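Researcher: Go.
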Amino acid sequence: MARSVVVTGASSGIGLASAVRLVRAGWRVYGGVRNDPDAAAVREQGIEPVVLDVTDALQIAAAAETVGPELHGLVDNAGIAIAAPLELVPLDELRRQLEVNVVGQVAVLQEFLPALRRTQGRVVLMGSIGGRGALPFLGPYAASKHALEAFADVLRVELAPWGIAVAIVEPASVRTAIWTKGAAHADVMREGISREADELYAARIERFRAVALKRGPGIDPDVVAKAVEHALTASRPKARYLVGRDAHVRAWIEWLPTRLRDRVLAKALTE
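Model: Structure:
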């Protein structure tokens, strides 16, 4: 009987790459999607779609009913990215960021843990190098990923008595639509901000974007998916998976004394 895994946010990016890789490795993959067109698209890849908005308790419960009483892996991947100076981010948007990326992940985990416990299954949280160190203008997103780092530390110990291994994957920039969607949403948010307030940060944000564009589109999502597969299948999975050169560089920077760290990042992000 094939091992089964639930991958949330499976319609694109890291979630889709992970789901496809696991299908090819012989897993029975339930892919969380939010609408019928996405369901049809993932079904063509051999993924079994389940309608799963991680902020909808009824959909989460229905997905668990579809999957059944036994599950071998959960990839808690679904997420959004909201980018804005903390002074200007609308509080409803901050709540939305945390609801999807933090509360939603726990809601899914709670629902599927009984099925994972029966098989000594595994949990993979989709973090970010931003969960180790936050960059300016990415505060809402980084805060959500910092929370997942804490959850990973807690869950590794809490779930150990049942043999459930927990890993967190920490990529840097990845070639996905999450930031394209986030940028479009940021433009909508700016409509509700006064011109005077917007201009406080406009020049620095433009420099930040220019540097990001110069650094390129990020790594292929399948590179991250490979780490996800290792976390689900290795006899001794890692607790943390740093993925990509930029993630390793950022991790090294976070070891610097705080004042030096800030100067290094300020220089790298504005020149």
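Model: The beta strands are 4-7, 28-33, 48-51, 73-76, 122-126, 165-171, 240-243.
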